């Protein structure tokens, strides 16, 4: 129910506020300065109308009013009329300048607090998103994370800003009310007749605005996701001429966002309309009733200490100024709830449990050649759908091994387990007997250089792309890695050479070029394990052969774990594991597996037949034999 949702500040909300304000704990001095400057602004605001009132009522009439405010002003002014006029003019000017300086200081501190606090929130959020595992990232749209980082991160600052603004408003309201009451009780009460109506409009519109702001935020986050995904799909849409379909989807998403915004805007605009109409009535009451009081006390039956023109001016000024703090107070719940919703979206991510965690007692595992053991490893993305079953294998230091088998049988998943991108749901992976879950995560990952199927490239120079995994790599090491993967030739042909800047995703390179750079990136690291998922899928036979030679040369120094459908590259492996439906069904060297005459042998025959057919197509008479391929 609306009212409950809006009015009830639960324990969770309290903790959201506490946590949001905690982001500004280090800014205590700034906040104290801000509060002091606000104090100055409030005093100036309270005093501003008085020089004119004193001038009219006490100086120009020739009969100084006896009340305390007039007394206060007159006590610092000279006795002569001219001196008093000049003094009051200077006071008015001085108040204006001090007020402006205080305002300037407040704004600058506000900006600093906002940007510094929001930056801290963003740092935390970004770090958390970096640490959340693939399970999170593969089940949440990227646009949602972008929206939280760019928009929701302002939530904690919004809460602090609203709390400060409203506290100041409350103080201002109390002091102004006290001053007004000390001047004229009936006119002050008349000014507050609109109070209940203000509260009513705040309540009514506050609930609606809060709900619609939340809905609009969610729809905007979806829109950001949608745009991000649509941009990725542009080449696909062009290929299959689905531009019209994509545009319709985009138009739909934008339409939903606009409709949500319009629903929100309607309430946001109706609210001040209702509020200002109520306040206009209040203003009319002050002017009408106050005007009458001046007429009564000054003309009809003059009375000392009655309502004066100067005092009416103060009332009119205060009433105008009262509306601002009233606005803060009445909008408080709406504003703070909206910012709370944003902060909650941030904290929800920060509180998401990390699926891959590091045991506080995790062991150091210095980078070194080690034996990897798959100890009855099982894995399931979903509890009811296991992918890997009871995998057992030992991979010795410096060995070259391959996992082969039909598509979708869990080979890439197994590689992800080796990097602890996921943890096994049964059994364990061990390095020199240490369960990966018991070792420091960064140490485990420092052992592995993974080349995935996607060959991700950054919009940076080729050299920076190769050195991404080891920023300190020397130019020689970068060039050597490029030579080993056969990338050097095409890099040197580029006008910018190694300094050529790649387009987003490396789109200005061919698939095979990207793949060679991705492998060079892995080679440049000093990781003892090279883990390669389909490393030759985009390579021509020449570059594939070059890579196989490179891997053979690296064997012994580094442990190489290959997943591939190109069986030519596994011939030199020390062990080949044939996986089917998540189980190792055959294992041995290439020749041992051929001898088994089982699944692997059948796959190999198919591979040979395809290679022969390809070579025939290329017009090269092939006398290819198993032995030659294996050689
Ligand atoms: N993030 C995920 N969530 C749920 N299921 C997944 C996820 N990633 C992969 N799968 C499923 O796990 C199974 C194994 O996928 P995996 O990518 O490991 O196979 P693969 O043997 O490497 O296939 P390929 O040879 O085609 O690369 C597939 O059925 C796939 O649909």
Which whole number gives the mean pLDDT? 87
Shape: elongated
The figure for the number of domains is 3
- Looking at CATH, which topology of the largest domain would you report? ABC transporter transmembrane region fold
CATH class of the largest domain: Mainly Alpha
- Low-confidence runs: 1-7, 621-631
Bound heterogens, unique: adenosine-5'-triphosphate
- Oligomer classification: single chain
Number of E-type strands: 10
Q: In which order are the strands of the major sheet placed?
A: 6-7-8-3-9-10
Write a brief caption for the model.
It is built from 24 helices and 10 strands.
Q: How would you explain this protein's 3D organization?
A:
With 631 residues, the protein is α/β, with parallel strands linked by helices. The protein folds into three domains: 17-350, Up-down Bundle (ABC transporter transmembrane region fold), CATH 1.20.1560; 362-447 and 529-542 and 555-593, 3-Layer(aba) Sandwich (Rossmann fold), CATH 3.40.50; 455-526, 3-Layer(aba) Sandwich (Rossmann fold), CATH 3.40.50.300. It is 63% helix and 10% strand. It has 24 helices and ten strands. The strands form two sheets. Strands 6-7-8-3-9-10 form a six-stranded mixed beta sheet, sandwiched between helices. Strands 2-1-4-5 form a four-stranded antiparallel beta sheet, with helices on one face. Mean pLDDT is 87; it is low at 1-7 and 621-631. The chain binds adenosine-5'-triphosphate. Adenosine-5'-triphosphate binds next to α15.
């Amino acid at each position: 129910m609306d009212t409950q949702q809006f009015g009830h500040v639960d324990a969770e909300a309290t903790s959201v506020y506490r946590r949001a304000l905690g982001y500004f704990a280090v800014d205590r001095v700034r906040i104290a300065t801000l509060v002091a400057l606000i104090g100055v602004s409030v005093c100036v605001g309270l005093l501003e109308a008085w020089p004119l009132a004193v001038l009219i009522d006490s100086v120009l009439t020739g009969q100084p009013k006896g009340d305390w405010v007039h007394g206060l002003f007159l006590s610092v002014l000279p006795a002569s009329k001219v001196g008093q006029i000049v003094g009051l003019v200077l006071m008015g000017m001085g108040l204006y300048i001090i007020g402006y300086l205080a305002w300037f200081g407040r704004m600058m501190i506000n900006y600093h607090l906002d940007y510094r606090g929001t930056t801290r929130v963003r740092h935390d959020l970004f770090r958390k998103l970096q640490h959340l595992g693939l399970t999170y990232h593969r089940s949440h749209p990227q646009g949602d994370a972008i929206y939280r980082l760019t928009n929701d991160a302002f939530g904690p600052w919004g809460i602090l800003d609203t709390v400060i603004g409203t506290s100041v408003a409350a103080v201002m309201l109390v002091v102004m009310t006290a001053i007004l009451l000390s001047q004229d009780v009936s006119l002050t009460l008349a000014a507050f007749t609109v109070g209940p109506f203000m509260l009513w409009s705040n309540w009514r519109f506050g609930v609606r605005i809060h709900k619609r702001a939340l809905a609009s935020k969610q729809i905007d986050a979806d829109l950001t996701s949608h745009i991000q995904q649509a941009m990725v799909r542009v080449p696909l849409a062009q290929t299959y001429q689905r531009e019209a379909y994509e545009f319709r989807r985009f138009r739909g998403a934008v339409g939903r966002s606009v409709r949500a915004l319009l629903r929100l805007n309607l309430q946001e605009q109706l609210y001040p309309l209702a509020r200002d109409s109520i306040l206009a009535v209040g203003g009319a009451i002050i002017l009408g009733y106050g005007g009458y009081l001046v007429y009564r006390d000054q003309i009809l039956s003059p009375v000392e200490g009655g309502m004066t023109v100067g005092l009416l001016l103060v009332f009119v000024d205060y009433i105008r100024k009262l509306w601002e703090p009233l606005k803060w107070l009445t909008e408080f719940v709406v504003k703070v709830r909206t910012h709370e919703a944003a902060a909650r979206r941030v904290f929800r991510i920060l509180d998401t449990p990390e699926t891959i965690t590091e045991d506080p007692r995790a062991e150091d595992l210095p980078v070194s050649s080690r034996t990897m053991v798959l100890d009855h490893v099982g894995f399931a993305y979903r509890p009811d759908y296991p992918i890997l079953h009871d995998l057992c294998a030992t991979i010795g230091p410096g060995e070259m091994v391959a996992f082969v088998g039909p598509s979708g049988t869990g080979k890439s998943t197994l590689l992800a387990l080796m990097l602890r991108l996921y943890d096994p749901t049964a059994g364990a992976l061990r390095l020199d007997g240490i369960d990966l879950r018991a070792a420091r995560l960064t140490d485990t990952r420092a052992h592995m250089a993974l080349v995935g199927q996607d060959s991700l490239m950054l919009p940076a120079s080729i050299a920076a792309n190769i050195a991404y995994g080891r920023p300190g790599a020397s130019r020689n090491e970068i060039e050597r890695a490029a030579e080993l993967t056969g990338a050097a030739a095409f890099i040197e042909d580029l006008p910018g050479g190694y300094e050529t800047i790649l387009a987003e995703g490396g789109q200005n390179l061919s698939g095979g070029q990207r793949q060679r750079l991705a492998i060079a990136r892995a080679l440049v690291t000093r990781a003892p394990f090279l883990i390669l998922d389909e490393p030759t899928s985009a390579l021509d036979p020449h570059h594939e052969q070059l890579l196989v030679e490179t891997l053979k040369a690296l064997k012994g120094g580094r442990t190489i774990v290959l997943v591939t459908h190109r069986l030519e590259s596994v011939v030199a492996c020390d062990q080949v594991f044939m996986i089917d439906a998540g189980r190792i069904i055959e294992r041995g060297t290439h020749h041992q597996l051929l001898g088994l005459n089982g699944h692997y042998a059948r796959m190999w025959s198919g591979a040979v037949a395809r290679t022969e057919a390809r070579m025939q197509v290329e017009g090269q008479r092939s006398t290819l034999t198993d032995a030659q391929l294996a050689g």
